[in-house]
Amino acid sequence: MSVHAALTIAGSDSSGGAGIQADIKTMITNGVYAMSAITALTAQNTTGVRSVMEVPPEFLGDQLDAVFEDIYPEAVKIGMVSSKELIQVIGEKLRFYQAKNVVVDPVMVASSGSSLMKNNGAEMMIKELFPLASLITPNIPEAEILSGCEIKNKQDMEAAAEKLSDLGAEAVLLKGGHSISDADDLLCVEGQKIWIRGRRIHNPNTHGTGCTLSSAIASNLAKGMEMEEAVRKAKEYISKALEAGLDLGKGSGPLDHAFYMANL
Ligand SMILES: Nc1ncnc2c1ncn2[C@@H]1O[C@H](COP(=O)(O)OP(=O)(O)O)[C@@H](O)[C@H]1O
Ligand SMILES: Cc1ncc(COP(=O)(O)OP(=O)(O)O)c(N)n1
Questions:
Q1: Which residues does 42 contact at the CB level (< 8 Å), separation at least 6?
Q2: Which of 8, 26, 29, 206 is catalytic?
Q3: Predicted confidence (pLDDT) at residue 26 exceeds the cutoff of 70
Q4: Residue ranges per structural domain of the chain
Q5: What's the CA-to-centroid distance between 255 and ligand 2, angstroms?
Q6: What is the ipTM of this complex?
């Protein structure tokens, strides 16, 4: 049996709903072997982020060397990277190891409102990581910052996605979770704009949706899917994990990655 491996480079979420923990759960349930390089520890739960402790950049570099020199990942997902120095190390290492299928989720602010990226991080991310990316997956507030466009409707999403397509990544997925209507995401790939439709699910527990979606896409790319199929399958996964209706914690709770077990 062939085993496909994927790597997540992201922050740890002590409550297990987002970050490294969400990524690993997603990769396992999507059938790939999961590895991690941790950029920061966060003390957070479903109500918010209390504090953040970044790892030293050299140590992030050591983690990446240890992974790439031994089990070469077929896809890499990048999530929370809070400082320019950490972004720089990731850029250097991914170029050195010629990483493939790189999915960059440009995490800036948690849904609870806490900042997860320091000043100028966005500029550095555009310069260092977007040119290495097979896909970037901003949500609407992140896309507004990165494109400079205000997004109020689907036409605005299309205009912003066009601008984001010029920032160096091979493809862009502008996520519609923060829109007021349906949860439709817009994929721009190979000069095409493809709407990935999604019914809005009335579940207030959406902690970690972005992490989960990007990890599911990375898993699908690791398994050899083309970009559109990888995104469509990941969208199905996130919809099922939301529909399962897990309700944990006092705030916006985590998704149910064990939904498929209900039918076993
Ligand atoms: N209430 C919802 N119903 C259905 N899909 C949702 C809902 N909220 C988010 N999503 C989906 O989850 C994924 C992550 O989107 P989003 O919440 O915008 O990202 P982030 O977590 O980075 O803010 C997208 O595919 C989005 O359409
Ligand atoms: C450690 C860590 N990384 C990322 C996030 C943000 O997660 P995201 O999937 O974008 O979802 P929300 O929690 O913002 O809905 C995080 N909170 N912590």
A1: 11, 12, 13, 14, 19, 49, 50, 51, 52, 53, 80, 116
A2: 206
A3: yes
A4: 5-263
A5: 12
A6: 0.97
Q: Is 15 in the pocket of ligand 2 (CB under 6 A)?
A: no
- Which SS3 state, helix, strand or coil, does residue 100 take? coil
pLDDT in tens, 36-75: 999 999 999 999 999 999 999 999 999 999 999 999 999 9
Catalytic residue among 39, 209, 212, 223: 209
For the CA of 12, the nearest ligand: 2
- The verdict on the CB of residue 185 being under 6 Å from ligand 1 is yes
Instruction: Note the pLDDT tens digit of each residue in 110-164.
Output: 888 888 998 889 999 999 999 999 999 999 999 999 999 999 999 999 999 999 9
The whole-number pLDDT of residue 238 equals 97
The span from the CA of 147 to the CA of 5, in Å, is 32
From ligand 2's centre to the CA of 2, what distance in Å? 31
Q: Specify the length of the chain in residues.
A: 264
What CATH class has 5-263? alpha beta
CB distance 62 to 36 below 8 Å: no
214 ligand 2 Cβ < 6 A: no
Cβ proximity of 122 and 55 under 8 Å: no
Ligand 1 centre from 206 Cα, in Å? 7
Q: How many CB atoms neighbour CB 263 within 10 A?
A: 5
For strands 5-13 and 75-78, give the pairing. parallel
